[in-house]
Write a structure and sequence with these properties.
With 132 residues, this protein is mainly beta. The protein contains 1 helix and 11 strands, in the order βββββββββαββ. The chain has one helix spanning 109-113; strands spanning 4-7, 10-13, 18-24, 30-36, 43-49, 54-57, 65-69, 75-80, 89-95, 121-122, 126-131.
């Protein structure tokens, strides 16, 4: 049984920071954070290749959010700085993109890294609310 256990959501004012964590019960070559606001599609936020520590970000969060992992490569984190009201959403951790293999340097990699349908396992989600 694969479990992704998320923690760290909450409520902050605009400009504040939060750090999310996602504990994975098995090893995965790729993991990612997505978010979904009410009435909107699930959006890719950040992705990491656990073997190389290579990271990728969605345009809306680049420069403000940082994805990282622990030394055991079983827990990933999402440090969110400079939060805006538009960042309000349920944040989900995802693992195992083996259904959509792609080299990180290939032109279509970003689309696959941030495609929800490519991930096999999902966490339960954690709410992040940013007030103005």
């Amino acid at each position: 049984q694969v479990d992704l256990v998320e923690a760290g959501g909450g409520s902050v004012r605009a400009g504040g920071s939060l750090k999310l964590s996602c504990k994975n019960t098995y090893s995965s070559a790729s993991m990612a954070w997505f978010r979904q606001a009410p009435g909107k599609n699930r959006e890719g936020v950040a992705s990491i290749l656990t073997g190389s520590d290579r990271t990728f970000y969605g345009e809306s969060v680049e420069g403000r959010f940082t994805i990282s992992q622990d030394n055991a490569k079983t827990t990933i984190f999402l440090q969110m700085n400079g939060l805006k009201p538009d960042d309000t959403a349920v944040y989900y951790c995802a693992a195992d993109r083996s259904a959509c293999p792609a080299a990180w340097w290939s032109p279509g990699f970003s689309a696959l890294a941030f495609s929800p349908s490519c991930y096999k396992y999902w966490g339960q989600g954690t709410q992040v609310t940013v007030s103005s």
